[in-house]
Amino acid sequence: MSRSGIRNNGNECFMNSSFQILASSPFIQEFMSRYKTDDTKIFAIINKFNLGKFKAVEIKEECTKIIREHSNSLDAKEKSILEHIINHSADIFIYIAFKDIINKLTEKKIQVINNSLFHSIGKELTTEINYEHLFNGDQHDPHEFICYILDRLHKSKQSKVKISLPPNIDELDIYSKLYHTHFKSRYENDYSYFVKNFYYYMLNCVECFKCKNKTYEVCPNESLCVSIPTIESQDNISLDDCLNDMFKVEIIDYKCEKCGNNEDNRIEKKILSKPKTLIIKIKRYIQQNTFMGVRLVKNNKMVYYPEIININQHICGQKSCNYELYGIINHTGGLNGGHYYSFVKELDSITGKHKENWISCNDSRVNNITDQEAMTSQNAYILFYNLIQ
């Protein structure tokens, strides 16, 4: 069996295509491996106190009850794990259900996997975090779903850590100072493996046209959302064209904090810290004026994407940034419908590298495809690249 498929129980292709990509994503496998011992301890507590018999929404109350009634017999580690479950119960059980699907896809023992357990747990738990719409049985965006899943995984392992600034920080360049300072303030109380190994930083630099004063804004990021630009060669639009359009210098409406000038000030965007995984969403929906008003329409133009992409020009400092394509989520149809499916390279569990062949994962249907088919999809919507070390 080359790859397990996933049953579509109704409008779940946005989930299924995402699962297939994430199962072949090195950062997901590394995340699960990093917390293997931690997961074993959590499962031991779940089994010891028979927490599996309760609904996911009841776990928090039950763990509180266990701490209250068994305070004299619990050791410090058991109490700490129970308190972690109380504080992150929804995130932990969504992670457990997600991990079960990823493991089944990796093991390839089942021809078609059923994701009904994940769906039922997600539906039960998302009401308190305002993502219940992802589990209401309608079609949704896989990009939103992936961002939701990654945030839940991060929060399931969230902890406080001590982050020290480099002793020579005053000697570093402005970009390094911004990175280290913001990293400490943002993640010291909100840390997980993702912080260093998946999330990265974007930098916005606003320069005053008059006095040349520069103002910097730093923000965490997990994916790039690029528009399809309007260029002369409409039939030959490349992913580089999209990236160049995203990172172009623009004139903005901004009042300089130093001199008060509000004319011709410009903003420049850069990637501040090198991503290990580069997720690029092609924004295919554009506003169009019609006699009935403004409406969203899909842009079906072909965007040519390379197998190897270099983003050196869009990143701060002298860094070698070559990335290799390993996954594509495709979309056919329009705004309020259509279908999602994925092309993916399998991740070798021994070497940790991607295999050469491409696989098409279309819900329960899985088959090998040629490199040409994978590299020339007009339906490409989200591209997944891994850093070449």
Automatic annotation (TrEMBL):
One of its GO terms (biological process) is protein deubiquitination. It catalyses: Thiol-dependent hydrolysis of ester, thioester, amide, peptide and isopeptide bonds formed by the C-terminal Gly of ubiquitin (a 76-residue protein attached to proteins as an intracellular targeting signal). Its EC number is 3.4.19.12. This is ubiquitinyl hydrolase 1. Signal peptide: none annotated. Belongs to the peptidase C19 family. GO terms for cellular component: cytosol; nucleus. InterPro entries: Papain-like_cys_pep_sf (IPR038765), Peptidase_C19 (IPR050164), Peptidase_C19_UCH (IPR001394), USP (IPR028889), USP_CS (IPR018200). It comes from viral metagenome.
